Each structure stands twice: as C-alpha cells, then as structure tokens.
Amino acid sequence: MYGAERQQLLAQRARRDGRIDVMAAAEEFEVAPETIRRDLGALERQGLVRRVYGGAIPVERLDFEPGVTQRDQTNAAEKERIARAAFDLLPTRGTLLLDAGTTTGRLASMIPADRELTVVTNSLPIASQLAGRSTVHMLGGRIRGTTLASVESWALNVLDGLTVDAGFFGTNGFSVDRGCTTPDPAESAVKAAMVRACRRRVLLADHSKYGDDQFSRFAELAEIDVVVTDSGLDDAAVEELNAQTKVVSA
C-alpha cells in the first residue's frame, strides 16, 4: 500500500471513529508506529486531523462536545478503575466537591451512606445519585444540556463564598503546557471557581484526554494536587506530569 492510500484510509477512520490510535493502526496496516505518526503528521499539515497523545482526532471533532451518555461509554473500563482509585482519596468526613463529569459520577456512585460528607456539586446526575445518602448542595444556574452541569453567575456567586475540604474534577483535556481545559467558557468559569474553593484538588482523567487541549483553561496543572489516570500513559508522559503534580495510575 502506498503512503497516500494509507493516509486517506487514516483520515476516513478518524472521521468514522472519532480518533486514530497509533499502535492499533500500526498493527492493522502492518507498519511501524513511526510510519503512522508520520502519516498523521502529514494529515495534520493538510488540516484534516489534530495530533493528540497516542494518535489523532479529526478536526471536525474540535467543535463537537459529546453528551453525557456518549462520554460515559467512552473508555468505560478505564473510568471505572480511575473512580475506584479516587475512592481511596475521599475524605472520611467533612466537605466534598464533585464536578460534573462521567468519571466523577462513577465516583459518586461508590460513596457509602454512612460516610459523614457534605457534598457540593454542579451536576444534576450526581445530585440525584447522592440526595438520599449524603447532605447535598446543588449549585444553581443555567443547566447545560450537553453536560447537565449548572453554569453562570448563580453558581459562581455561591462558590465565591465556599471553602471545601476536597474537590474531584473532570476535564475534556489536560497537558503540561495548557493545563486542564474544556470546550465551553461558561463551564470552564465554574470549574475554575470550584478549583479556587477547594483546599485539595484531584483531577480524574483517562489517558485519551492527555494532550487533547480544548478551548478554555480552568486550571494550571500546578493547581492540581493529584491526577488520577489509567495505565495508558507511557513513562515519559507520567514523568512529565510528575514534574508539576502527583500522578496516581489506576
């Protein structure tokens, strides 16, 4: 197969599947991973994909934010492992903030009823999960249909007066250079206010989000105390992250 033919197939796969994984593509096309990386570099120069950690995503996806159901099904096994590892970092009592997200939602489902926690959240699904098991304060504001998270001034005004023992955050992308990012500025503003409100901050993010920088930053990595991720990051990426924060691999 000629390189141009392979690149055309890679571009088609990226549009169809939403992502190209370097190692999987190398195995499928029976070429070295370096060959696939060069192909993706060529496609990026043509404006067809954007390189991310471990592969590439189609440029069409940059303006697309998947809904809660689709995100929950993506890397579900990794998210479950991350949530279980994050459970060990929960305080035994006190105040807890849970950001809207599918991995934080999995963590919420694990919180036992006998744990003495007051929970603050901007997530409708998380508030619904915990309402019968914990003291829950749901942040007000406009509810984004895509993420079911409350945003804008009602949430921001309340967060400005809070001090929370520990916060657990989701993200659409994270990297050493750009920090923690999300596509929507309104949601990013609430996430940033949550980060400021917490004494301890824990980021829950699977490896596919590493290097996938989004439009709006809500925290520098140095503001995050612990990043809980899965084993998909290589040693170089973990070392790079450990220079700014602590990494826990699930």
Automatic annotation (TrEMBL):
PROSITE patterns: HTH_DEOR_2. InterPro entries: Carb_Metab_HTH_regulators, DeoR-like_C, DeoR_HTH, NagB/RpiA_transferase-like, WH_DNA-bd_sf. Residues 3-58 form the HTH deoR-type domain. Pfam families: DeoRC (PF00455), HTH_DeoR (PF08220). It comes from the Bacteria. One of its GO terms (molecular function) is DNA binding. Keywords: DNA-binding, Repressor, Transcription, Transcription regulation. Repressor of the lactose catabolism operon. Galactose-6-phosphate is the inducer. This is Lactose phosphotransferase system repressor. It comes from Saccharopolyspora taberi. The lineage of its organism: Bacteria, Bacillati, Actinomycetota, Actinomycetes, Pseudonocardiales.
